[in-house]
What does this fold into?
Amino acid sequence: MAGDLAVLPTQSFIGPAMQPVMAAFSRINEDPERLRNAYMKVSRFTMMLAVPVCIGMSLTSDLIVKVLLGAK
It folds into this structure.
């Protein structure tokens, strides 16, 4: 259960968002500078979204476990 919760942000937010991004990367593959800039922008945006979600989950993990698994 803990493993499933740990990968929740990646599976729910980052994974689905990266599918169209990879398609866009394949279209600009011929221009290395443009590909590099696009990759940097996507990386920054992904981290801007993922880091707060992961920090929020880590700060409230005890509550999340109690709600999902019970008080035991």
